[in-house]
Amino acid sequence: MDGSGKLLWQARHPRIGSRIHDLEQPMRSKPFIDGDRVYYVSNRGELICADLEGFHDGANDGPFQNEDQTGSTDADFLWKIDMMAELGVFRREASDVGNPSSSPIVIGDLVFCVTGHGRTGSGELPYASTPSSPVHQEAPSFLAVQKLTGKIVWSSSAPGRDILLGQWSSPVHAQIRGVDLVIFPGGDGFLYGFEALSGTLLWEVDCNEPGAKTTS
Ligand SMILES: [Ca+2]
Questions:
Q1: Residues pairing with 113 in the sheet
Q2: What is the 32 CA–ligand 1 centroid distance (Å)?
């Protein structure tokens, strides 16, 4: 909206139609605005980069060009990563709290998010990928993506089989002794500190209650 509250553009993301993936509640990813772009995670498990002007500027900015809706009040997507279809993520809803989705952050030239990979309704991690079902256990939990192109620079499936149920939280940025760190909350109750540019894991902290068992 503009400063007077007039609608300039809006994004629409249809429901997936599967309760386990997309409980019918509001999308909770907070947008991160960086320059003339906005980043968020949709209720369909897509990491989205959109033009801050939408189609209100009369131009279909890219590289993504295949928007379904191109009216003057529609969203202009610059790129998106469908983390379920492209990366095999099993997007797990979070029961009574619905659809929490990671809120991406930008550090320098990279955008970071938690993918939402989690366990199925029966509490299992998804099994090996097939052509018709690309979901797999080793799908990434954390992503670092080139913010202008949508190219994945590095990823990590750090919690591995120790994911307890799902992963819905958001990364944070810290600069320690001049080094940019991205700190990811894992679905195993650990915090993981990565060097943001390289993806090198620098440390991890077990935030579980002492003596708590992990699932494997
Ligand atoms: Ca545009």
A1: 143
A2: 18
Q: 43 CA distance to ligand 1 centroid (A)? A: 22
What is the full DSSP assignment across 36-66?
Answer: TEEEEE-TTSEEEEEETTGGGGS---SS---
The model carries a pTM of: 0.90
Tokens standing for 184? 């990811």
Among 59-63, 69-73, 162-166, 173-177, where is mean pLDDT lowest? Answer: 162-166
Residue 93 has a pLDDT of 78
| Gap from CA of 36 to ligand 1 centroid (Å) | 10
DSSP state of 161: G
How confident is the model at residue 138, as a pLDDT? 79
What is the CA(195)–ligand 1 centre distance, in A? 33
Residues sharing a CB contact under 8 Å with residue 14, sequence separation 6 or more, in sequence order:
44
In the reported structure, the alpha carbon of residue 113 is separated from the centroid of ligand 1 by a whole-number distance in angstroms of 24
Tell how far the Cα of 58 is from the centroid of ligand 1, in angstroms: 6
CA of 53 to the centre of ligand 1 (A): 5
- pLDDT for residue 42 is more than 80: yes
Spacing, Cα 20 to ligand 1 middle (Å): 34
131 has a pLDDT exceeding 60: no
Per-residue pLDDT for 18 more than 70? yes
| Strand partners for 48 | 40, 80
Residue 159 preceded by cis peptide, ω within 30: no
Q: What percent of the chain has pLDDT over 70?
A: 91
